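Section 4.2 – Deliverable D4.2 (structural model, holo form)

The reporting period included a commitment to supply a predicted holo structure for the target in complex with KG4. Inputs used:
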Amino acid sequence: MEEKKEILILAIESSCDETAAAVVKNGREVLSNVISSQIDLHTLYGGVVPEIASRKHIERINYVIQEALDQANVTLKDLDAIGVTYGPGLVGALLVGVAEAKAISYAAKLPLIGVHHIEGHISANYIEHKDLEPPFACLVVSGGHTHLVIVRDYGEYEIIGRTRDDAAGEAFDKVARAIGLGYPGGPKIDRVSKEGNPDAVHFPRAKVEGAPYDFSFSGVKSAVLNHINGCRMKGEEICQADIAASFQKAVCDVLVSHAVEAAKDYHMPKLALAGGVASNSALRSMMEEACRKEKIPLYYPSPILCTDNAAMIGAAAYYEYRKGVRHGLDLNAVPNLKLGER
Ligand code: KG4
Ligand code: ZN
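Output (structure tokens):
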């Protein structure tokens, strides 16, 4: 039988606080990408409240999916498969997307493909960079994960480095709270840093003994807290913008040096960034500069494809689909799913 040329996938993402659905053609062409963010709601509590997230997902998911189908101008009959994030993430939040995807798969007789959330973040790079193909090194920096990954092939990953404590995004969020910027911290630190001096305070750049690609961000977070306390004790005013910019530089310095070293050591021809923190403007420009020096082509998605979305899940689902990966109607949410596990 001749292989169908156009594969249309409806993708669903609900692992944290965005209810998202997208229709993606052949893994790289986004026909629609609908994101319903709950940020305003969780801001009231200073962070994501898991039960509220699940309840909002269940209220919104059908509308979000309908919107994604409408914007793409397709119906369920036009689709070839359903892709859904089944881990890692908040279990109650994941279950909403998984149950929805299973119901659609059953009713519309469509193959079901469970996708790893981080595989989605990495695959976001394929959408705007049509020339990007594995192998490449990828720095995945999100609110829950900080990984250095060697992408050997589509769906084939080797994690060579990870954080020993906080994820990079988590550190941004905690420091933002400490200096009074509130939630979500990453984008706020990014913004106020533009008015600050990144060399005003020297915060530590942690190295993990014997693990050159691992990260540790709890030290820099404590150093920021100590600095603030020290200033308060001396009756000195704290400069929010200087602290934000100095913290951001300390984190980005480590992310850039580890990622570039990894790409070189593993002889990877390209380097990509993925995850919410990959939209950080300082990280992007510092990485650009380092990659230019080392002559390593650098790839990163537009900010809207860096933070949680379903288009990235559709991209990842397509390559899983091509490999013949299919999940049964017994698919469950796996909150601590490991990358590369099926
Ligand atoms: O990938 P993502 O949307 O969700 C997870 O899978 O965790 O990442 C969210 C994280 C949050 O910690 C947020 O503060 C951070 O990404 N983030 C940023 C920026 N935009 C989002 N961090 C630094 N700079 C940004 N511009
Ligand atoms: Zn994410």
